[in-house]
Write a structure and sequence with these properties.
Number of helices: 9
Radius of gyration: 20 Å
Helix content: 40-55%
Mean pLDDT: 90
Largest sheet: 4 strands, antiparallel
Number of domains: 3
Order of helices and strands: HHEEHEHEEHEHHHH
Structural class: alpha+beta
Strand content: 5-15%
Number of strands: 6
Shape: globular
Length: about 260
């Protein structure tokens, strides 16, 4: 996208031009953005792991495998502490992969992701967890620890959020076509971004912890809404010669993750 498109898009959300340009320069410095010879910007190498995580909302079911009752665990002794960037990256990576703390220094999640422990380890490191952190399979918990592990996630809140987001997407989709272009653009970006964030942060719990059909229904609703949102942004993107309809544009939602 040209910087003019970024500035114009930022204005829709009350971001002044100078603020947007400063942000773009900072992202360039961090290699989260790169600029080609035509002065157009795209996501850079530093943003690629998170971008891959964000756009994966479309393929959630492909990331899963049958749960056999085991767990993937992370020992926190090697994780950075405090409020520095390294600690923030590690905490975000654990959150994005759905880990919850079973005991001080021990976080886990169900071992139901394709690639198993090795795949989870690789993704954690790519997302910023300190290299060398112990990531391992955990099984045969005693009855008390097993019950506590299964109760670490607020399943009732998760299911309620699925249902609420489906209703909000349906209601917004029904009115977008009647809204002025700018209003439709802002509404679709904010709501679509929020639901993408919800799915990106979803712990992807297996049956029987969460009915998988409810998560699949939300993904299907967001796919429909994504098409409506692209239509709302089509005129704006075309005016700036930026791709919008045929290419995955979910990188716009990286900021929501």
């Amino acid at each position: 996208m040209p910087v003019g498109a970024l500035v114009a898009a930022g204005a829709l959300f009350g971001i002044p031009e100078n603020g947007m340009r400063v942000a773009v320069n900072r992202l360039l410095g961090a290699e989260a953005l790169v600029r080609d010879e035509r002065g157009r910007y795209r996501l850079g190498p530093a943003a690629e792991p998170l971008d891959e995580r964000v756009v994966s909302w479309r393929r959630i079911e492909e990331r899963l495998r049958r749960w056999e009752g085991g767990w993937v665990a992370v020992h926190g002794a090697g994780l950075p502490r405090g409020r520095g960037p390294a600690a923030a990256r590690s905490a975000r990576a654990l959150r994005l992969l759905g880990f919850a703390e079973l005991a001080p220094g021990l976080a886990l999640r169900p071992d139901n992701l394709r690639g198993g422990v090795e795949g989870v380890r690789a993704e954690l490191f790519a997302l910023g967890v300190t290299a060398g952190t112990k990531v391992f399979a955990l099984g045969e918990l005693d009855a008390e620890a097993e019950a506590r592990a299964r109760s670490l996630w607020d399943v009732a809140a998760l299911r309620a959020s699925y249902a609420r987001s489906r209703r909000e997407l349906a209601a917004s989709e029904a009115r977008l076509a009647q809204r002025p272009e700018r209003a439709a653009m802002v509404e679709s970006f904010r709501l679509g971004g929020r639901v993408i964030r919800e799915l990106v942060r979803d712990p992807l719990l297996p049956e029987p912890l969460v009915p998988a059909a409810e998560r699949r229904a939300l993904v299907a609703a967001l796919r429909r809404y994504d098409r409506a949102g692209r239509r709302a942004w089509a005129g704006f993107m075309a005016r700036f010669g930026a791709p919008h309809a045929s290419l995955p544009a979910d990188g716009l939602a990286v900021a929501f993750a």
